Structures are given as structure tokens and as C-alpha cells.
Amino acid sequence: MMRFIRNHFLFGFLILAEFPIFLSGCASQPLTHVAGPSSMAAGPSVATANLLSLASAPQTAYHEVGPMETLWRIAKEYDVDINTLMQVNRISNPNQIKVGQKLKIPGTVGLRPVIPLYRSRPWSYIVIHHTATEMGNAISINKAHHERGFWDGLGYHFLIDNGTLGKLDGQIEISPRWVKQKDGAHCNAAGMNQKGVGVALVGNFSQTSVSSRQLDSLVFLVSTLMKHYQIPLKHIIAHRDVPGKNTECPGTRFPWNEFISRLQKFTRR
Ligand SMILES: [Zn+2]
Q1: Is the per-residue pLDDT at 74 higher than 90?
Q2: Domain limits at 78?
Q3: 236 sits in which H/E element
Q4: Does the chain have fewer CB atoms within 10 Å around its N or its C terminus?
Q5: How many angstroms separate the CA atoms of 265 and 193, rounded?
Q6: Rounded to the nearest whole angstrom, what is the distance from the C-alpha of residue 18 to the centroid of ligand 1?
């Protein structure tokens, strides 16, 4: 276990992040996160967490670019140099990567979440969903939501993958709605699309269980958002518990009590 703290400017973002690095076999390590002091930052601050390991030694990985992903964020997620990524993939302009483009990621041992945190909206609730699908990633669900008539595609702000469609189990994908700080299209009752951050886990948790990595990532993400936006624990709600909703979402087998008890240690009394 190696810990270090980095504090530096990169592409206008102030980053203050603690990286508890661990490789496979250490999955019970506690999640920690430190968000940057955004009052000093030119852009959003960033929270990051545990590595989802790909291998115990550096190897080449491949990454399919999701909606509104940036090369900067991809480089940081895999902890590789952005210039190396540009060279290996023959990219001359880092702003011109495209959704669906396959990137070669050399010399990585894994991937960690990099969550941009903004101050422009007073988010006051977090609504938890499942996708009710066996498979999915931001690209596929973005497409599905477009086809359902959502003009802005992917209706959630965050998606936590389940290891299907080329994504890692527990990988956190960031929706364009979050990057643009737009209303969600995940829960049209009780004003939740306006005041609630929509977080969905890929899977149907009326039929299968949430994986431990998905739950770890959910606890990290929700606790990070709670801290940044000062959201109380009672405002972390399941879609089914929003008044006016008639749904099982996020599924009858979702471990709600375990999830809430793990969040309790992040709340101040
Ligand atoms: Zn839902």
C-alpha cells in the first residue's frame, strides 16, 4: 500500500488528491477521498479514489471514449501522461477525440475514478437507480435514452458499470449532464430532476446482486457528493422512495441498509 499526496496545477485544474493505491487482492481497503479546495480553483475540483486494478504490472489497455470524455480525464484515470497518450494514438489535438474512438493506453495498472466537482448548482438530493438491464455503459445507455426521446441522452448524471460492454466492474462514468451541470432526466417526480443528482448502477437488482466493486464505487461517489454539496443522509434516496413514483428501482435486492450504514461514517453529527 503506497500513499502519497499530490498538489499541482494541471490544465487549469487544481488537484489535491490522496491516492490510496492498491492492487488486486486488497479490495477491502477503505475508500478515501479528498476534494480540491475549489475556491482557489480555476475549474472544478476533482475527487479520486481507489484503483480498479487491471493487472499487477503495467500493461496496455484499450479504452472506448464515452460521451463528453476528455483526454485529460482519461489520462488521469489511468495515471498515464497525456502526451504519451497523444503520441501512441497519433492525436495532434486533444480536443478532437470522438465518442466510440478506441484509445490505446500504454503502461497502466488500472483505472480510478476522477470526479469533477462544481459549485454552480446547489444539488440537494441524490437519487439512486438501476438501469434494469443486464449490460450497459454510458455509450449504450446514452443511445437508448436518445431513442426514448431524451434530447440530451443519458438521463443520469453518473453511471456505475458492472463489467459489461468493455467497462470494468465498478467503473464510474460521468454523464454529459454532469459536465454541463444540467437537469437530470431520471426522476420526474418531486422536482428531483432539478434538485437531485441521478446516479445509476448498471444491472437489474430485482434479479441479481450489486457487486462489491459497484457498491464500493457508489459509496465513494455518494459520500464525495454529500461532502461537497453538504447533502444530509436523509436526502440520499432510492428512486422507489420518491413520493409519487411507482417503481421497484433500484431493485428489490439492492442492499439499501448496508449502503446507508456505510454512508453514516461520512456524516457529521
Ligand atoms: Zn430509477
Answers
A1: yes
A2: 2-115
A3: strand 236-238
A4: C
A5: 27
A6: 32
